[in-house]
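Lecture 7 notes: from sequence to structure.

We start with a single chain of 91 residues. Read the sequence below before looking at the structure.
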Amino acid sequence: MSHIYPQDWKYGIIDSVDLPNVDFNEDIYPKNANSLRYSLDSSQFVIKWEEDHTPHFIEDGTVVPASILSWADCLTLMQTPAWSEPEPVEE
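Now the structure, written as C-alpha coordinates:
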Protein backbone atom coordinates (compact mmCIF):
# COMPACT_ATOMS: atom_id res chain seq x y z
CA MET A 1 0.00 0.00 0.00
CA SER A 2 1.45 3.35 -0.99
CA HIS A 3 1.24 6.36 1.25
CA ILE A 4 -0.40 9.55 0.05
CA TYR A 5 1.27 12.71 1.26
CA PRO A 6 -0.13 16.25 0.91
CA GLN A 7 2.41 17.02 -1.79
CA ASP A 8 1.01 14.11 -3.88
CA TRP A 9 -2.28 15.99 -4.42
CA LYS A 10 -3.38 18.72 -6.78
CA TYR A 11 -5.83 21.28 -5.44
CA GLY A 12 -8.38 22.87 -7.72
CA ILE A 13 -9.97 26.20 -6.92
CA ILE A 14 -13.38 26.00 -8.59
CA ASP A 15 -15.93 28.76 -9.17
CA SER A 16 -19.13 27.98 -7.27
CA VAL A 17 -21.24 28.32 -10.43
CA ASP A 18 -19.50 25.13 -11.65
CA LEU A 19 -20.66 23.02 -8.69
CA PRO A 20 -23.39 21.22 -10.71
CA ASN A 21 -20.69 20.03 -13.13
CA VAL A 22 -18.46 18.45 -10.47
CA ASP A 23 -18.78 14.66 -10.46
CA PHE A 24 -18.29 13.52 -6.87
CA ASN A 25 -18.27 9.89 -8.05
CA GLU A 26 -14.79 10.50 -9.42
CA ASP A 27 -11.67 10.05 -7.29
CA ILE A 28 -11.76 13.54 -5.76
CA TYR A 29 -12.05 14.85 -2.23
CA PRO A 30 -14.22 15.79 -0.56
CA LYS A 31 -16.65 13.12 -1.69
CA ASN A 32 -19.77 15.29 -1.55
CA ALA A 33 -20.85 18.91 -1.90
CA ASN A 34 -21.76 19.21 1.78
CA SER A 35 -18.10 18.84 2.78
CA LEU A 36 -16.60 21.47 0.48
CA ARG A 37 -14.46 24.30 1.80
CA TYR A 38 -15.68 27.59 0.39
CA SER A 39 -14.08 30.99 0.23
CA LEU A 40 -15.64 33.39 2.73
CA ASP A 41 -17.76 35.01 0.01
CA SER A 42 -18.81 31.52 -1.23
CA SER A 43 -17.70 32.35 -4.77
CA GLN A 44 -15.19 29.47 -4.92
CA PHE A 45 -14.50 26.10 -3.35
CA VAL A 46 -11.57 23.71 -3.28
CA ILE A 47 -11.31 20.07 -4.33
CA LYS A 48 -8.29 17.81 -4.44
CA TRP A 49 -7.19 14.79 -6.42
CA GLU A 50 -4.13 12.59 -6.74
CA GLU A 51 -1.53 14.27 -8.88
CA ASP A 52 -1.59 11.57 -11.58
CA HIS A 53 -5.41 11.43 -11.86
CA THR A 54 -6.99 14.61 -13.16
CA PRO A 55 -10.80 14.37 -12.93
CA HIS A 56 -12.57 13.88 -16.27
CA PHE A 57 -14.73 16.95 -15.78
CA ILE A 58 -11.53 19.03 -15.68
CA GLU A 59 -9.72 17.10 -18.44
CA ASP A 60 -12.61 17.54 -20.87
CA GLY A 61 -13.10 21.23 -20.05
CA THR A 62 -16.53 20.87 -18.45
CA VAL A 63 -15.04 22.61 -15.40
CA VAL A 64 -12.11 24.99 -15.77
CA PRO A 65 -10.51 25.65 -12.39
CA ALA A 66 -9.68 29.24 -11.50
CA SER A 67 -6.32 27.73 -10.50
CA ILE A 68 -4.67 24.38 -9.86
CA LEU A 69 -2.31 24.52 -6.92
CA SER A 70 0.27 22.47 -5.09
CA TRP A 71 -0.31 21.64 -1.43
CA ALA A 72 1.98 24.45 -0.28
CA ASP A 73 0.30 27.02 -2.54
CA CYS A 74 -3.16 25.88 -1.45
CA LEU A 75 -2.18 26.10 2.20
CA THR A 76 -0.97 29.66 1.59
CA LEU A 77 -4.23 30.54 -0.17
CA MET A 78 -6.33 29.12 2.67
CA GLN A 79 -4.60 31.56 5.05
CA THR A 80 -5.58 34.65 3.02
CA PRO A 81 -8.44 36.99 4.01
CA ALA A 82 -10.52 35.62 1.12
CA TRP A 83 -10.54 32.13 2.71
CA SER A 84 -10.01 32.62 6.45
CA GLU A 85 -11.47 34.96 9.04
CA PRO A 86 -8.77 37.06 10.67
CA GLU A 87 -7.86 35.92 14.14
CA PRO A 88 -8.97 38.39 16.81
CA VAL A 89 -6.25 40.47 18.32
CA GLU A 90 -5.92 39.92 22.03
CA GLU A 91 -5.44 43.06 24.05
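The mean pLDDT is 92. Keep this in mind for problem set 3.
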